[in-house]
């Protein structure tokens, strides 16, 4: 059977460990994973970086720099060859969806299309009421500062997030590779600290609409373990009830550790595996 981690990171993320990629792969092998997708944060569009309004650290360390791209790709190719008899390693990116920069994102993906095996398409940045695009998961103070109005009425914040996630699913990547929609309840990362309420019925309907579009596009869903380890969250992304809804309509859930350090690999896999569709090698 295939045991897959479809969402992993490296030292190039700049907001995790500096451990080398070999250490991640060795740990994955020890844990019995047979398939491993390296999905480092793709370089953000240059114009976006120039116009960025959030903290400097979030601008500089949310993704790899464009001048690291060649080294990143060579490292992935190196470990593919080194461990080819032990694990199937696939090359990819976690790609930030940014509505205003769709042309730049598509151009990047087209340039790298021959190298990409799979991608995770995620939303980490949203426009606020002033039209400034700011990070939603960098730290709680940043979310509160740039989305103060929305945090006072969290259902508005949720709606804005799911509007963006739906836009991301409708975005034409131009690729013919597996696409997974990343951590679709990330907006709840600070729910305990900010006392975020449960989704109201209109947001639940948005999620149902989102899942229908994912199904129509034949995309996968990132079943992401990272939220369990976040002190202000404590849940998978998405939550188990949404994951069950996803499975019922036939969307493939792919476990993602979202590991930014070696020790995070495989966390909560056993708790989540019942909702993951087992696949035989060769399927």
From TrEMBL:
Gene name for this UniProt entry: hisJ
Keyword field: Amino-acid biosynthesis, Histidine biosynthesis, Hydrolase
Molecular-function GO term, any one: histidinol-phosphatase activity
Pathway this chain belongs to: Amino-acid biosynthesis; L-histidine biosynthesis; L-histidine from 5-phospho-alpha-D-ribose 1-diphosphate: step 8/9
UniProt cross-references to Gene3D superfamilies, sorted A to Z: Metal-dependent hydrolases
Domain PHP: 5-225
CDD domains assigned to the protein according to its UniProt record, in alphabetical order: PHP_HisPPase_Hisj_like (cd12110)
GO terms for cellular component: cytoplasm
InterPro entries documented for this protein: Histidinol_P_phosphatase_HisJ (IPR010140), PHP_dom (IPR004013), Pol/histidinol_Pase-like (IPR016195)
The keyword Cytoplasm is assigned to this record: no
Catalytic activity: L-histidinol phosphate + H2O = L-histidinol + phosphate
Keyword set includes Amino-acid biosynthesis: yes
Family: Belongs to the PHP hydrolase family. HisK subfamily.
Protein name: Histidinol-phosphatase
Pfam name, any one: PHP
EC number: 3.1.3.15
High-level lineage: Bacteria, Bacillati, Bacillota, Bacilli, Lactobacillales
GO biological process assignments: L-histidine biosynthetic process
Organism from which the protein derives: Leuconostoc mesenteroides
């Amino acid at each position: 059977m295939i045991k897959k981690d479809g969402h992993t990171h490296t030292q190039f993320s700049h907001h995790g460990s500096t451990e080398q990629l070999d250490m991640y792969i060795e740990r994955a092998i020890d844990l019995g994973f047979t398939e491993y997708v390296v999905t480092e944060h793709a370089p953000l569009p240059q114009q976006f970086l120039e116009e960025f309004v959030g903290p400097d650290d979030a601008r500089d360390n949310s993704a790899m720099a464009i001048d690291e791209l060649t080294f990143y790709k060579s490292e992935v190719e190196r470990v593919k060859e080194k461990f080819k008899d032990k694990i199937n390693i696939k090359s990819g990116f976690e790609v930030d969806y940014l509505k205003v920069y769709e042309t730049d994102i598509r151009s990047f993906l087209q340039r790298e299309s021959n190298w990409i095996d799979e991608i995770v398409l995620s939303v980490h940045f949203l426009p606020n009421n002033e039209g400034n695009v700011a990070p939603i998961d960098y730290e709680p103070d940043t979310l509160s500062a740039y989305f103060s109005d929305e945090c006072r009425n969290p259902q508005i914040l949720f709606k804005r997030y799911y509007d963006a996630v739906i836009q991301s699913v409708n975005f034409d990547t131009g690729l013919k590779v597996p696409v997974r929609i990343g951590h679709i309840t990330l907006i709840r990362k600070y729910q305990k600290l900010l006392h975020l309420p449960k989704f109201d019925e209109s947001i639940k309907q948005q999620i149902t609409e989102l899942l229908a579009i994912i199904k129509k596009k034949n995309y996968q869903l990132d079943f992401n373990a990272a939220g369990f380890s976040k002190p202000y969250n404590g849940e998978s992304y998405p939550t188990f009830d949404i994951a069950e809804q996803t499975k019922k309509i036939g969307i493939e859930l792919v476990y993602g550790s979202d590991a930014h350090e070696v020790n995070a690999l495989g966390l909560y896999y056993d708790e989540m595996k019942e909702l993951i569709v087992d696949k035989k090698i060769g399927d």
